[in-house]
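Incident review: delayed structure delivery

Summary: a single-chain prediction request sat in the queue longer than the usual turnaround. Root cause was a stuck worker, restarted by the on-call engineer. No data loss occurred. The affected request and its eventual output are reproduced below so the record is complete for anyone auditing the incident later.

Affected input:
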Amino acid sequence: MADRSRWMLVIEPEPAVLDAAAALGAEVRSVRAADVSTDALTDLASAYGTRRILYFGDSPAVHRAVEDTLARLFPQRTRTLRWLQDPAAMRRMLNQSRVSVVNAVTVRSVDTALAWAEHLPLPLVIKGGPDSDTAFVHSGEDLRDWAAHTPRLPGVIEEFLAGPRLVVDTFTHAGMHHVLGVTAAEDAAPVGADLLYPAALTEAEAASVRSTVRALLDLAGHESGPVRTWVVLTEGGPRITAAQMSPVSGPFGRLREASTGRHPGADVLTLITGRAGDPPSPARFSGLARLDTPPEPDRSRVLNLLAERADVYDLRIVEGPVARGHAEVIIHAGSPWEVARRATAIREQYRG
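Output delivered after worker restart:
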């Protein structure tokens, strides 16, 4: 009888993922995204005798189906999901454990939120229930606008955290939380770039960020799978602002691939098949610049010019709620300063 201990279901695996699986001796059963549903994945997991279900693509619907299936197979994940993705529950858990402490108050109605906000210093942050938008309140007008949009409550009002913003991607296997990468975002990426990978941190800063994120995952009882955590590096140390289980890979995965030369899924397969330690350090820096797209024909002309640049690793249009989206350009360089120079040059060329 075949050994199924190394089998896993992978949805729409790219060739690089299949190559990595073959090199590692992993048995991959491919699943078409069009065939994905919670019931279908549950049946396939039972048929193949595996509870490893992986998806490295960018479809939110597929990620939700994977997470719903894993919650069905592992009922304890429901509790972990609440601790990580309910802002009020997560803040209460962290503050009570003295990990990433942030001044905050839980509110269960709009009237209560307004009463508290009137006596708190601005700016502040209001987070509704799971999957709700976060409101940054800088004035009384912002507060009234938030109240007028029927926010989902209960929620939490938090102090605004000043400092560089980081995005930490982890993958947990066999109880070990492996840091896949730390990306610099707002106030941490160099001028001209919206994101930078890897984030330019000191060894002490990086260690503190990793330790804080792992503490969150331990507190939440997270046992397996990917989590993305948003962190602010304040003067008092790292402070966690949000987390998401089964996140869309998106630009964060593409930045890691540009810096390491490896598909992000290959790192995950390496961990699952028992190779110890976090993934190797990236060989170069990569930055992402988001550009507003002009109307045609200028849009195609400028995009074609950018695509010819040797320092452009990836270029794509990300569609928004209307037909016209923005362009995401990923560039690579030997240092954050060179990323800044090239990103600025690309913005100037795009405007021209």
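Verification: The longest helix spans residues 203-220.
Action items: add queue-age alerting; document worker restart procedure.
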